[in-house]
Amino acid sequence: MGKLNIHIHTVGCRANQADSSVLTAHLNPETIAVTGAENAEVYVINTCCVTVEAERDGKKFARRMLRKNPSAGVIFTGCAVSAFSDITEEFSSQVLAVGGGATSPKALASWVNEFASGHRLAAPLPSTKSRRYQYFEDEGESFNIVGNVQGRTRALLKIQNGCTHNCSYCIVPKARGPEQSMRPEEIFRQVDALAAAGARELVFTGVQMGAWGIDLADVPSLAEIVDESALRFSPGRIRLSSIEPWSVDESLIAVMAKNERICAHLHIPLQSGDDDVLADMKRGYCASEWLEKVKMARERIPHVAVGTDVICGFPTESESAFDNTLQVLEQSGVSYVHGFSYSRRPGTLAAKKWGDNRTVAKERVRRVRALGEQLQSAYVSTQVNTVREVLVETAVRGVTDTFLTVQLAAATPGELVKCELVRCDGDADSLCAKLR
Could you tell me the pTM of the whole model? Predict the structure, then answer.
């Protein structure tokens, strides 16, 4: 019996991408060949449920693949499986829902390996509601750490899973379960292994990354973990993925300011610049507090890029409340903005209390993104004629430590190089990088 061709399709955030990388790394190469979508016999779809669109994307992919290959099997896993018990309802019996957002990728890989040995759809993992999974396990020597390196340049390391903050609009606590953290010694082991595997940028990620350590006793702070990891990973660099404002403290900013192996880049979600809306969202801070965190980062970390997320069209967001959001963004001087429409998620407090208005939300998203383009252009202007470290991704493209994509004349993928940033001919908002 030959190997089973499996394609892994990921929808959603970096945490999901990291889960898929770990899942792939634990698959048995003697019985499984990880292939492109065109050659697959089974599709493992790592789903997302944070918005209606993300939930639909996973199902759309499944339908499209089944039209092309009616005999294929489909395995849904990830957040939407935990959040919605009827995810397979519209599909035939060849589609299974397995595990969920609180299931460790290693446990899921064990199930897929057993499934592949018989080349048939097997009984699913126990329901994530039946017990609390130990999400982070000691990987041991069997972990193919190289499987976590994307394109031989960048790696994702998910150090935290779960959230109990319970924002009123968010279904993630239901999908991911309570906070769980990777132990410090395992973080450092994987940092060392990824450096040895040739990665030159390591992205720390989590469902609520700033909550790392909340479930562990007698551990260092997140700032100390990041600092030590950056020293171990040198000459490579560490980048932090999205971190909530309540987790951005003076110790984290101080570590980023002093350690040049930590990228000068933070992504701090705002969600709304109106205090009443923030209260209805149950975010736990006001707009001025968010602004103070951004100000602290910009004052203490040279050239820092700060990005943010904004939810547009929340049910209690009036036009004046939305104007407050635009004003806060302008005051902040952030480097880029991700604007999203409010998405009504069944089972959340917001969905129980209010409806939604997609038309209003879409128009506000357009306005937020237009402002975001202006803010990004202004930030790009501050970077002209500066020297930044660039991770070369292709021979003609790279990414700075400040999260700017730049054009290169010629370089070797995987290298970290010092470059002078200059305007590209004919494009005021694009930067070219000249090797120093």
Answer: 0.93
